[in-house]
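Known limitations

Structure tokens in this collection are predictions and should be treated as such. Users comparing against experimental data should check residue numbering before alignment. To illustrate the layout, the record for 4-amino-4-deoxy-L-arabinose transferase-like glycosyltransferase is reproduced below. The input appears on top and the generated tokens appear beneath it.
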Amino acid sequence: MTTDQSAAGGSRPTSRDGRPNDDAPGGRAATADAANKDAPGDDKAASKDAPGDDKAADKDKAGDAAKPSDTDKAAGDETSGKDDKATGKAGGDTTGKDNNGKPAGTPAEEGKPDRWSAFGPAPEPVPTWYGRLGRWFGRLLIHEWTLAAVGSLALAVLLTWPTLRYPAHTLPQDYWDPSLQAWQMAWSGHILLTDPAQLWHSNAFFPERWSFAFSDTLLGYAPAGMIGNGPEAALVRYNIMFVLAHALATFGAYVLARQLGASRIGSAVAGVAYTYAPWLLSQAGHLHVVSNGGIPLALAMLARGHGWSLRHGYRPERRHEGWVYAGWLVAAWQLSLGFGIGLPFAYVLAVTVLVAAAIWYAKRIFWRLKRPFGQRLFVADLIGGLIFAGVGVLMAIPYFTVTQLHPNAERTIDDIAVFSPPATGFLTAPAESRLWGELHEGARSLLPWHPEMTLLPGFVLYALAVGGLFFSIWRVRQRLLLLAGVLVAMALSMGTELFDGRFTYVPLFDHLPGWNGIRTPGRLMLWATLLLGLLAAGAVSAFAERVREISAERIPSWPSPWLRLATLIPLALVIAEGTNTTPHPVVPRQPAAMRSVDGPLLVLPSGQNHDQPVMLWSTTRFQDIVNGGSGFTPRQLRDVRRVAMTFPDQTSVDYLRTLGVQNVLVLRNKIDGTPWEVSVDAPVDGLGITREEIDSVVVFRL
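Generated tokens:
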């Protein structure tokens, strides 16, 4: 140990390197302790009386008078600097604070920045609420479901074009049934806003009651019917819902295939094949048939809520009762669009629930396999099932009432035979198919009613499904079950053509409630198409997985462009086969008289195809009209059409007055070749009626 000589002549114990040894007796630590003992509560007094302060003051004075040697100076500067920083009492501080403004006695680490902080991770910034919202929205935009929905919508606009080119003036395929369905949406929206109790008693078919239940109602689209007024708004609404129905079908089938375990590209093939199968192109004029996207979407939600997939089976940890509620609500909404598609869906759901429950309890009882289900999931199924059943019952009551009031509305097995397609229908495309329409013209000519008998789901889909029987991500047992479902659906789609339906369609017709209301069995091909799509998705998914395996073996591990494009070929072929040549005729314009003449009124000529545009024209004021077109014709409307053939004469005028009709409108541009071509200008003297012209319409006021 050496001695450091201060300017005042005092000595302090130092270490070998010239630094003060605070641990030595008489060092600075002892001095500081003594000062703190003398005045524990008064920093200022302690600073004044401490000997270290006097030494520091003497050091400053002596430093000006005597200059130490270079060696001593260097040692003294180092010692003094360390001394000042270490204790905070040197340098003549009389306030109890050191040169950095810290209180005396503060440890050195508290006043110095951490020299290693620059090398540590930067502190994570606290995001603002709008920052969090932006990040959430960004993640939402690139989420798989968002991309699938946007892709489905873009594809729907493209493959239904030119539906949205002139949406206020044209309708897809024809303007008969689409006019009826445009009126249905407008009526449900209008009456639910004005007088919900009269929902089932529409303004058409006057003076009939329950007339809204004469055909499928599309009641689930009522919220859209609340927007806009008049025929043009009804046309725009119909065309928008037509496109959205295609988008929902594609999205729903995609989601179902993904939930069951298919890859993205395989699910896309299933979604497109389900929506744009060639046989569905002939149904472009039936929105209640095209609106089938709720079926696969509800099944996907229910499967996800129960933690089940076709590929992975039951996974209890993935259960979520929220998806179960959503699935049942979507199923109820699908049922509200109409029983033509909704009733078979209801029976499929019922069979699925029963089979799943039987398998569940069989595994618990016979295989002693106990898997959790959960009370909350059971409650969700119970409540959701009751909601679905409640909607079905409430919808069914008006239809059962109609069959009681109008026995001719009930179908017979002979009616079903008229629309039952032969087996050749499964290989025949409709005229609306761009790819196969002209080629299959001869085959269509052999079908009695080709709009409902051309049931080709697509040759590409057939090929992919057959490939899926041999090369697929599904297990062999699952492939066979899917194939069995396809065959059953096809057999039912043939109606009475397969062994006269004795073992297929007729038992359902005789014993299942409501099944006799289904007029066209060929629409059951929807289920065969969905199952074929799942088989195809299995094959395409296996192909995509094989491509990934091959790419993993490459160096670098990345597939070539040709290999990646190969996975898109099945999707491109399915899209190509789904292109169409569907016509979009211009809808007859609403006569000005329909905007001013009060009801009840009759528009002549009257007939199934004439009356449906008249229903559309009535959406401006919804006045009562005798005209109406639906799945059947009430006897009273038949009598009106028969008696009105001689209008205006005394018999027809008296008959219409007994019904409560006040005005009759005769359309001059529609009466060529009819009895009214002459009688419309006949004298009306003595009949007690008046006649006036409003544009091209002759108005008779009774």
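For this record: Confidence is low (pLDDT under 50) at residues 1-102. The first helix runs from residue 28 to 38. Please report discrepancies through the issue tracker.
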